[in-house]
Amino acid sequence: MATIEETLNKLSKSKFRSSFHLTKKEKEYALSKGMDVIRSHAIDFISQRLAPAYISNDGSQTPTKGHPVFKAQHACACCCRGCLNKWYKVSKNVELSRVQQEKIVNLLMAWISKELE
């Protein structure tokens, strides 16, 4: 199993995934809310938009802007079940476990933290 650092390194080699970066406004939002609040948002977004076994609008449920977590989801290939399957071999029609959700949130938070450096 790859570490977060190894995964971020692999993602950085993808032209598409590496094209995502937080805007100044998204950085300011993250800094003003604090990482605990952003993590809370990530937990909610993943549990509601990505964890269910069947998602009616899979492939288009994650906006590409408007919140640091949304941007991180695209940068980390955690935006839809198709990307999770392609990048991480996560089955599409099976509900994500709590452990899987935590790993996704940890990856997203690591990416956001790097963007804020």
Describe, in plain words, how this protein is organized in 3D:
By secondary structure, the chain is mostly helical. It has one domain. It is 59% helix and 0% strand. It has six helices and no strands. The chain has helices at residues 4-12, 24-33, 35-49, 68-75, 81-88, 98-116. α3 crosses α6 (98-116). The mean pLDDT is 95.
Number of domains: 1
Strand elements, count: 0
Strand content bin: under 5%
| Cα Rg | 13 Å
Measure the end-to-end span: 26 Å
Topology:
Blueprint: H1 4-12, H2 24-33, H3 35-49, H4 68-75, H5 81-88, H6 98-116
Helix pairs in contact: 3-6, 4-6
Short structural summary:
This protein is an all-alpha fold and 117 residues long. Helix content is 59%, strand content 0%. The chain has helices spanning 4-12, 24-33, 35-49, 68-75, 81-88, 98-116.
